[in-house]
TrEMBL record:
<keyword id="KW-0378">Hydrolase</keyword>
<dbReference type="GO" id="GO:0000166">
    <property type="term" value="F:nucleotide binding"/>
</dbReference>
<dbReference type="GO" id="GO:0009166">
    <property type="term" value="P:nucleotide catabolic process"/>
</dbReference>
<feature type="domain" description="Calcineurin-like phosphoesterase">
    <location>
        <begin position="6"/>
        <end position="206"/>
    </location>
</feature>
<protein>
    <submittedName>
        <fullName>Ser/Thr protein phosphatase family protein</fullName>
    </submittedName>
</protein>
<dbReference type="InterPro" id="IPR029052">
    <property type="entry name" value="Metallo-depent_PP-like"/>
</dbReference>
<dbReference type="InterPro" id="IPR036907">
    <property type="entry name" value="5'-Nucleotdase_C_sf"/>
</dbReference>
<keyword id="KW-0547">Nucleotide-binding</keyword>
<dbReference type="InterPro" id="IPR008334">
    <property type="entry name" value="5'-Nucleotdase_C"/>
</dbReference>
<dbReference type="InterPro" id="IPR006179">
    <property type="entry name" value="5_nucleotidase/apyrase"/>
</dbReference>
<dbReference type="Pfam" id="PF02872">
    <property type="entry name" value="5_nucleotid_C"/>
</dbReference>
<comment type="similarity">
    <text>Belongs to the 5'-nucleotidase family.</text>
</comment>
<dbReference type="GO" id="GO:0030288">
    <property type="term" value="C:outer membrane-bounded periplasmic space"/>
</dbReference>
<dbReference type="InterPro" id="IPR004843">
    <property type="entry name" value="Calcineurin-like_PHP"/>
</dbReference>
<dbReference type="GO" id="GO:0008253">
    <property type="term" value="F:5'-nucleotidase activity"/>
</dbReference>
<dbReference type="GO" id="GO:0008768">
    <property type="term" value="F:UDP-sugar diphosphatase activity"/>
</dbReference>
<keyword id="KW-0732">Signal</keyword>
Length: 463
């Protein structure tokens, strides 16, 4: 008789909890049905399940997200860069403390030297269902500068996965990779490591509606933001030889509504707001945002980041400011709503020539960039907005970049701060080329703004 195994998978939900009740309802039904009918089914999440853009995630340091995963429960998860690089060391250390599932990731270490793994991570786990022995390996994207800055270690995933495959236990019938590495890496892994049967992917937010066969492996992935749920069906013969592998996806929007879902979704938000209700400062006047021009709040953030990083100026897009601060009390929630992005300050040390190229690029491109409805690269806003760079200018007549109204001094180095979007988005290639980068973690831009607001307005409280 043929054996059948179903894998259900989610990836890159990014705390889109407005989709969660429906996803949960659907998967819970599948889980219950599988138990009742004695069918083999496994449930996996492939990372970036949490995103600090949601107040509930922010207010609980991600613990509320782990609770949601527990409720199904999932059988195993790997984590993405949102879990791994946007949470402080201690918060990641605690994230899975009460998890009822194993966290699988073979290329992540508790130390820069990569000697030992944290005790909450497993490189590989085995499951035996219906006498089929299944190896589950996980891997996450190697954001080395970020992980090492926070005291973690990260290894190039392909060699880590190869080691796991070389050490597979005897009698393993099926090898599944939970990959938060992105589609190009998954395709390469499929060709280089033929022992892997199925790669459940994520990170690049790719949707493979009916999967993709590459070499020996079936690749499957469910897009982004909880818009889809993935399913892989595997048939094996009595000797556990794979007969077929197929993939399909379900659109969350088309699934039946979950009971009370609107109330539940509102509840996630309200609970997050309550967690963030602490007062930070009281400000004397309104600070309004402007996506297409300089603003007082942008100047405050510029000063804050320069002070924090020792940089001469801070290059940012005005689209990062999402709301205004009204005069009066500003809470953690208000700061989160204004700057919801998991963005870090990054200091770049560059030559005068490189600064010239950067300023030149900004002044040539900013008009076309400002209306781009940007998604990703750490940015959680709507439009990129204009580029703000205090002290920099461009002489249109002479076509020359200026700093403090003077031509760039080619004989000295400049320390210029920016944030992740400028490093990862392809708009200014020069930024990617600059070798000397210091990522400031774990504080996000909003933490640096909060620190500055307290310095500016906190004192008056005590008077
Ligand atoms: Zn990711």
């Amino acid at each position: 008789m043929k054996k059948r195994l179903t894998l259900w998978h989610t990836n890159d939900i990014h705390s889109h909890l407005e989709k969660w009740p429906r996803i949960f309802n659907f998967l819970k039904e599948k889980r219950t049905a599988a138990n009742k009918e004695n069918k083999s089914a496994l449930f996996f999440d492939i990372g970036d399940f949490l995103d600090r853009v949601h107040p509930l995630t922010e207010g609980t340091n991600g613990l509320a997200n782990t609770d949601l995963l527990n409720q199904l429960p999932y059988d195993a998860v790997t984590f993405g860069n949102n879990e791994g690089t946007t949470l402080a060391h201690e918060d990641l250390e605690n994230l899975y403390e009460h998890a009822t599932f194993p966290v699988v990731c073979c290329n992540f270490y508790a130390d820069k030297e990569r000697i030992k793994q944290p005790d909450w991570v497993k490189s590989i786990v085995y499951k035996e269902i219906d006498q089929v022995k299944i190896a589950i390996i996980g891997a996450t994207a190697p954001f080395r500068e970020y992980y090492e800055e926070m005291g973690w270690g990260i290894e190039e995933p392909i060699s880590s996965i190869q080691k796991q495959v070389a050490g597979l236990e005897e009698g393993t019938d099926l090898v599944i990779l939970l990959s938060h590495l992105g589609l190009p890496s998954d395709e390469r892994i499929a060709l280089e490591i033929p022992e892997i049967d199925v790669i459940l992917g994520g990170h690049t937010h790719h949707l493979l509606e009916t999967g993709k066969v590459e070499g020996n492996a079936l690749l499957a992935a469910a897009g982004r933001w909880g818009e889809y749920i993935g399913k892989v069906d595997i048939e094996l013969d009595e000797k556990n030889q794979i007969l077929s592998k197929t993939a399909m996806t379900f659109k969350t929007e088309d699934l039946p509504a979950a009971p009370n879902e609107a109330r539940e979704i509102q509840g996630f938000f309200d609970k997050g707001r309550a967690e963030l209700s602490e007062k930070v400062v009281a400000i004397p006047g309104k600070l309004a945002h402007n996506w297409f021009d300089d603003s007082e709040i942008a100047q405050i953030l510029n000063a804050a980041v320069c002070e924090w990083t020792g940089a001469e100026t801070f290059v940012m897009n005005a689209g990062i400011f999402m709301t205004d601060f009204e005069a009066g009390i500003v809470t953690d929630f208000d700061i989160h709503q204004m700057l919801p992005h998991p963005l870090n300050a990054i200091a770049l040390t560059m030559s005068g020539e490189e600064l010239e190229i950067l300023i030149d690029g900004i002044y040539r491109k900013k008009a076309e960039l400002q209306d781009i409805p940007l998604r990703g690269f750490g940015f959680r806003g709507e439009y990129f907005g204009t580029v703000l760079m205090d002290r920099a200018d461009f002489d249109l007549e002479k076509q020359v970049a200026l700093f403090d109204n003077k031509p760039i001094d080619k004989t000295r180095e400049y320390r210029i701060a920016t944030h992740d979007t400028f490093v990862f988005a392809p708009f200014f290639p020069i930024v990617k080329q600059i070798k000397r980068k210091e990522v400031y973690t774990p504080e996000l831009l909003r933490d640096i703004l909060k620190w500055k607001l307290k310095k500016m307005y906190g004192q008056e409280e005590d008077k």
